[in-house]
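Per reviewer request, we include the raw input and output of the structure prediction for the construct analysed in the revised manuscript.
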Amino acid sequence: MSSRRIASRLGLSLVLLSATPLVAFADTTILNASYDVSRELYKDIDPAFAAAWKKKSGEDVSVKQSHGGSTKQAQAVAEGLEADVVTLNQPTDLDFLAKKGVVAADWRNQFPNGAAPYTTTSVFLVRKGNPKGIKDWDDLIKSGVSVVIPNPKTSGNGRYTYLAAWGYAKEKFGSDDKARDFVAKLFANVPVFDGGGRGATTTFTQRGVGDALVSFENEAELIKAEVDGQNFDIVYPSLSVEAAPPVAVVQRVVEKRKTQALAKAYLDFLYSDEAQTLIAKHHYRPQNSSILKEAKLPEVHTFKVEDKIGPWETVQKTHFADGGVYDQITAKQN
């Protein structure tokens, strides 16, 4: 498949989302600020919610979308982007918004499962036939292997990749020092850092950069199943990280716009059977165990960041704050 066709397929949902409000304005509109590889999911979620809300209340509603690197989105909302809800991919981004007084301090308790309606994990997308024989994290640190990973400073996708590699190395070698050395070797093999997961996808699929792309399972499946399955294969590592993208109502905005009830209903809808089925359709792992079982997604051995590496707040400060471990290991490579 040509680069132009890949670009067209990946960008289609964004065009549809941005075009919809131009056709007809609904009585009520809310904005969902989300991370960049969730576009296709919410392309299906939003009209399903609108139909359910219409049936329940008789009111028309339009849901607009904003997508970008998770941390960039959190910063934009903190700086004034009037999103009624956020559906980001890492707890630290919502903790940041909580400290700014933008979302509730106890946002984890506002919705089930720690306010995460689904989970996903980091996998490898390799070129057809896997010419470099990439089977696990060890293969990504070998000399001559080029790996595409989004920037952990701006992308939750990139941060999860970093933490997945750290957790794998810590379990294999038994110490944080060896995990640090391992992650340093991995990031030494990254030729370019995009700001978010979709940018990294573009670099790998369109520009032909890299032997492997590390991204969320749903993004890899989208490319393999719907965009260009003939040219790529998915590799599941022996151990990866569980990512549980959290959601929250943006209190500062809904209080101003009087959309509290609608915003909460939208996020509640993500836990409905209808939405959970759509979540599974897009290769995320729904929290509904029956729907997850029916999805027949590959079994994968994962760990939680809190269990293997530490509390999210500590992880953020230690690894990703300015001057943290990530900056230290990448500074040595420059």
